Amino acid sequence: MQHSKRKTLNIFLLFSILGPGLISANAGNDAGGIFTYASVGASFGYRMIWGLIFITVSLAVVQEMNARMAIVTGKGLASLIRENFGVKLTFIAMLVLVIANFGVSIADFAGIAVSLELFGISKYISVPVFAIAIGLLVSKGSYRHVENVFLIFTFVFFSYIITCFLVRPDWGTVFHQSVIPTLDMNRDFLLTFIGMIGTTITPYMQFYLQSSIVDKRMKLSELGNAQTDACFGAVWGNAIAFFIIVCTAATLYKEKVSVTSAHQAAMALTPLAGHFASILFGAGLLGASVLACAVIPLSTSYAVCEAFGFESGVNTKARDASIFYGIYTLMIILGAAVVLIPGLSLVSLTLFTQQLAGMLCPVILIFMTLLVNNKRIMGKYVNNGLQNVLSIATVVFILAMTILLFIVLPFFYK
What we know:
Elements: H1 2-17, H2 20-27, H3 31-44, H4 49-73, H5 77-85, H6 87-117, H7 123-139, H8 143-154, H9 158-166, H10 171-178, H11 187-200, H12 203-216, H13 223-253, H14 262-273, H15 275-308, H16 322-339, H17 347-372, H18 375-378, H19 385-412
């Protein structure tokens, strides 16, 4: 009895310290992320799951660095970049971030539209309603209120776990291929593999995580909690990605059904795994899209305002942080408006923004690694030897994949 009570207490303690790390990692499983993971499973079965395990370790390292910098310095990532690398480099980073984030925001409003179309609701109703609700959530709430709503939306990802068990995969094969690295040296495999990296470790997640911890006003005594939150968020977010890959591999790959969108993946599940499975997949897409539609504009507002010294923060009143709320609102309005354009194809735009995010990610990670090793900034909380090995290996690996994507592959596959 005592052991049971202690176990329950530990679970409640874990949930009491979860917040920015869990939210940012789950926001990465947005409409584009779900499409990417569904495509991984449908096109290549279980052969990329080993890569997801490596990415999980990398994401945990990056998220922990963000959390540590936020608590020790009390500043967001954009602010630290400006102070230590100058305005010109900061301006370039912010320009690319805004363009990339705006494209991703459009894709996520499209995710809201297509997920509710599964239930017979027109995008001309769903998109405006959710755009208004998301705008009001941040402009009218405190940080604690906003965080609680975001955390509630993370529970919708359980739908992918349920869906995965409904399709009854061969777990022996799943775990066997999860521990045996496979790398097919062909263009489609490599592009999809790089896409999986790009949708998992994204720049907006790092800006959001660090800024939200600062906005939450966490103290140095809470560093351990923030680190736990960051690492748990990375593991949980990629566990969801694992179940999406397994779900689509067990059904769509087995039946040789290719997908070009998360919406198509949900529809394709119906004849293979039942209507309930497709409903759960669609519900997960809706929750993921709503969460990302709120987090991405918020991340952009935090970053731009910190970079150029404007007042920011969800706890700040609108009249005192007009630029912060203005950027947030404009991102939502324009993102929703683009999705409502009749007959617009979002495929090319989504691919372009993913490429921008892929190019920006190594740059941001280099900035982060330099900052977190600066004793003037971090004091005794600089990276230790193991953390540096892992962080540098992450940067080198992503840089290598980026070079492969933009230089090597175009040369060989003209």
